[in-house]
């Protein structure tokens, strides 16, 4: 089973269903079962499923992509990607939008 790691800030939005995608750089994901692991103390894991994968360029992300990821707009999503997750993310980076569903505690 594949594992998707998450920053602890995303636990509640994932549980609430307001974050249903994640944008990844240099990570391969496939449709199928997944464990969603949050870097909390202690670690929290949820079972879930990757329901879709779409490869695109960073500069082609849309406001709709951002809202599905729990952000107000594309600029907020890209700022978070660069300041928290991938500081050296180039404008033309190939990224993967991972669509997922969280089911419950692992």
From TrEMBL:
Pfam families: ASCH. PANTHER family: ASCH DOMAIN-CONTAINING PROTEIN. This is ASCH domain protein. InterPro entries: ASCH_domain, PUA-like_sf. Residues 4-103 form the ASCH domain. It comes from Occultella aeris.
């Amino acid at each position: 089973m594949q594992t998707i790691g998450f920053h602890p800030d995303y636990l509640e939005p994932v549980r609430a269903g307001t974050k249903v995608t994640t944008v990844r750089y240099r990570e391969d994901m496939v449709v199928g079962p997944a464990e969603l692991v949050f870097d909390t103390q202690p670690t929290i894991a949820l079972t879930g499923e990757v329901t879709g994968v779409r490869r695109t360029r960073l500069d082609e992300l849309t406001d709709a992509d951002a809202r599905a990821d729990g952000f107000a707009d594309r600029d907020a999503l890209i700022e978070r990607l660069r300041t928290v997750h991938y500081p050296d993310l180039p404008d033309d980076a190939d990224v993967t939008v991972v669509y997922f569903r969280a089911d419950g505690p692992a």
